[in-house]
Amino acid sequence: MAIKLGAEMVLEALRKEGVEVIFGYPGGAVLPIYDALYDSGLRHILARHEQGAVHMADGFARASGRVGVALVTSGPGATNTVTGLATAYMDSIPVVVLTGQVPTSLIGNDAFQEADTVGITRPVTKHNYLVKSIKDLPRILKEAFYIASSGRPGPVVVDLPKDVVSSEAEFEYPETIALRSYRPTVCGHVGQVRKALEMLFTAKAPVVFVGGGVILSNAADRLTQFARQLGVPVTMSLMGLGGFPGSDPLSLGMLGMHGTYQANMAIQNSDLIFAVGPRFDDRVTGKLETFAPKAKIVHIDVDPTSISKSIRVDIPIVGDARAVMGQFLEELGRNEPPKEYFDHLGHWRGRIENWKALHALDYDRNGSRIRSQYVIETLYDLTGGDAVVATDVGQHQMWVAQFFKFDKPRTLLTSGGLGTMGFGFPAALGAKIARPNETVIAISGDGSIQMNIQELMTAVQYGIDVKVVILNNSFLGMVRQWQELFYRSRYASSCMAMVPDFVKLAEAYGAKGFSSAAPEDVVPILKEALAHKGPVLIEFRVAEEDNVYPMVPPGGSIGDMLLV
Amino acid sequence: MGAANGHNKTPRRILSILVNNEFGVLSRISGLFSGRGFNIESLCVAETLDPEVSNMTIATSGDEQIIEQIIKHLRKLIPVIKVTDLTELAYVSREMVLVKVHAEGDARAEAMRLSEIFRGRIVDAAQKSLTIEVTGDDEKIQAFLDLIRPLGVKEIARTGKIAMARAQKG
Lengths: 564, 170
Ligand SMILES: Cc1ncc(C[n+]2csc(CCOP(=O)(O)OP(=O)(O)O)c2C)c(N)n1
Ligand SMILES: [Mg+2]
Prior knowledge:
The complex is a heterodimer. The radius of gyration of chain A is 24 Å and the shape is globular. A six-stranded parallel β-sheet of chain A has the order 3-2-4-5-7-6, with helices on both faces. Chain A is of the alpha/beta class. The model of chain A has no long low-confidence stretch (mean pLDDT 97). The longest helix of chain A is centred in the middle third of the chain and has 20 residues. Chain B is an alpha+beta fold. Chain B is built from four helices and nine strands, in the order βαββαββαββαββ. In chain B, the strands form two sheets. In chain B, strands 5, 6, 7, 8 and 9 form a five-stranded antiparallel β-sheet that branches. Chain B has a four-stranded antiparallel β-sheet with strand order 2-3-1-4, covered by helices on one side. The longest helix of chain B has 13 residues. The N and C termini of chain B lie far apart (38 Å). Chains A and B meet through loops of A and helix 1 and helix 2 of B. The site of thiamine diphosphate has 20 residues of chain A, from helix 17 and helix 20.
């Protein structure tokens, strides 16, 4: 056993956890850790705002499946992480945030840059720790990574008082975890799996519903095999996009408030919903009383609190989606559906084709204005869909979900649960660091991009090659859409009357900028931007008062959609 | 928190929760209740025989689905070791109440009589008042309070309920 400084223990623990990069911002209380970082060989990305640092760690985690790590100082450094933590918490993203804290002797004294970080972050973390003694430090760091990444993942905060990281003790990083109170379930109940499969074999109108859990547990390949083998149509929540290939003929696209007509109609008319890793959030279900009235529901989720929370479930299966889908595939190897099953399914898919034909996603391709939908389709065509796409929040986010066909997991990074404007660009930077050889695009709005634009400096300084596409509709478009539809077009404070000159802005930061309002410029600009080495900011001035359809009005039944 | 009045419409539940006896665990549990809009009627915490583990008794109310959610959320908290819904088992529960009651003239004799009937104890006596300690289950405490109140209660303190499953017979 070696004697080590607390700060060195932190870095040693990060190494042991396989961490290669940290996103952070220094300050007084974390100086000992930064001092240890100085010649540690660990890569540190200096964000320009702590919120940006946490979104980067989050984007890194979403894109790679590994734990993202951020390091910030006490007080304002820690409070600046709250939005990032809440974003990661709502979407179950494994992130460990290390916060500096004033020395233990000063805690509670309203010391300079003191904040009750553990108190403030408790409701937005899976768990958090204040390390009061250096002897607890190795164990807590080990637990933090384990808790963040196991079961239903989520962010963990470790609050590190300055005196704790400045003192010395013997260091031994624990090999194992001894948490008597936390043991997430992995495999599903075998009896329930059999029952669910039998129910599926006798269904006449089944739908597979993919949630974010499929992505988080790396279950996409197994789920895809399962759905294809049984020929079941598949719909996805926003967080589930990429969990089943969007270009597969069985894909119905996204369901819910801005879901496709065929997805919502299929759900409403189904007799069995086979749900893997969703949480039946209100943007998906619409009015609960009328959601899928004829359907029995099988719900697979690692988190028992997600099951029967809002929707009554007939067959709950608690377990990790990947492990449980493995069990289903195994059962499927022993059991075949009865012959009439495929007859029923043929008929059911026929009904769905009719819905598809009736109201396919579309837009007017002949106008003089650039349409956001067109830009997104063009990006899909130019990249062959082979890109990681991060979004911000608003209309552009929904159009990305509708018009970019995500074929692979971990290719859409979006703040689904919290709906955080300002998430997309820093998340894209984190993703590019995780997957340096892939094309990474941030699709943003004129409102959202201004919420973390400072990270353009980070992108340029470290040469993080992300393409930012701003769909500038001169509005907080999604707000304007709701005002148009539900507040008699009284556009209170939703008009972005002024935005910066984005080309000059890009140049001021040392990045490349493009701007255009002409549809014929879209292809050449995007081609040039994609070919360019280094960060690019592209502004397309798009049709202003365009709406996202279909739309289920808030509180309505998902079968009642506004269609154009 | 607040004391229960015993006349709730939604069913009462008594949850017994074993937790790691660590810094901040009480605020994690109370934060869960307040953050998700669940109701706490009373809460008692104390160490168990194992000094690293505490036992909490929480009286709460809600329909079947809410209670199920509360229990699942409690189990999800990292420091929570075990959650038992005692309402589903045979259990004994006790609460202690201290009542400072106006006691002059006839009222003094009546207060002493009530204390005796309810097997209470007079723990403090002054010229104008008596303080009575009574221990019992919900019904007993409620009956005592109903009878003592007309004498003029000056102050009241309740411990909140503690509870334990009955031992298996045989
Ligand atoms: C931090 C934050 N503040 C406010 C909102 C509310 N909100 C949701 S969408 C939206 C408009 C976003 O505008 P823009 O980025 O231009 O996207 P558009 O809808 O125009 O595509 C707003 C303000 C939010 N989601 N996040
Ligand atoms: Mg906009």
